[in-house]
Write a structure and sequence with these properties.
By secondary structure, this protein is α+β, with helices and mostly antiparallel strands. The protein contains 8 helices and 4 strands; from the N terminus they run βαβααααααββα. A 4-stranded mixed beta sheet has the order 2-1-3-4, with helices on both faces. The longest helix is centred in the N-terminal third of the chain and has 17 residues, at 15-31.
């Protein structure tokens, strides 16, 4: 996987990725620069599942909560941080289906987990989200059950590792990286000057 256009590495269970995605969208709307979202799982299997009380996740939530207020959002801490691989596969499925609402689907996945506390590690939850943007129920369930897009999800993780960018959010343009959470002004400057 090589990227010539700007891309934002995100994980749909990460509150900092969600807020970075929203800031990038704001920059896209004002500049016309389009940034591809590449889902990268922070803690892929077989890494054990953890709760948000784990020091790594607790730090991310504590950084994100005050920043979410800028978007009038109230983050809802789940008890468990699921593996996000299936949600990332759902995004791949929507892209392969040439679904016009892929951006909306990403928003709905983020919102389901980070604002509503739903377990997006569950296939039935993801199938419902997919249906809400026009994906067919039985096909979507089959795709997720057989891991049809496992290779694509693994390729995205390999790409992140090759860029030494395994901890999203990371904004990449060419050979330059903007690591961690940044506000829209910093993102706009990065995209405009690199």
């Amino acid at each position: 996987m090589t990227n010539k256009s700007p891309c934002l590495l995100i994980d749909v269970v990460d509150p900092l990725s969600f807020l970075a995605h929203l800031h990038v969208r704001s920059v896209e709307q004002t500049t016309g620069i389009l940034v591809e979202r590449i889902p990268v799982e922070l803690r892929p299997p077989p890494t054990e599942l953890i709760g948000v009380g784990h020091p790594f996740w607790l730090q991310r939530w504590e950084q994100a909560e005050p920043r979410a207020e800028e978007f009038n959002l109230s983050l809802r801490k789940p008890r468990l941080v699921p593996w996000s691989r299936k949600a990332h596969e759902l995004l791949c499925h929507a892209r392969a289906a040439e679904l016009d609402e892929t951006g909306e689907l990403l928003d709905l996945i983020f919102e389901a987990f980070l604002l509503k506390g739903k377990d997006i590690g569950r296939v039935d939850v993801l199938v419902g989200i997919g249906q809400s943007v026009g994906l067919e129920l039985s096909e979507t369930k089959a795709v997720l059950d057989i891991d049809r897009y496992e290779a694509e999800v693994t390729d995205a993780l390999d790409y992140a590792r090759s860029q030494k960018a395994e901890v999203p959010p990371v904004l990449i343009r060419g050979h330059k990286h903007l690591r961690g959470f940044h506000n829209r002004e910093a993102i706009g400057t990065f995209l405009a000057t690199t």
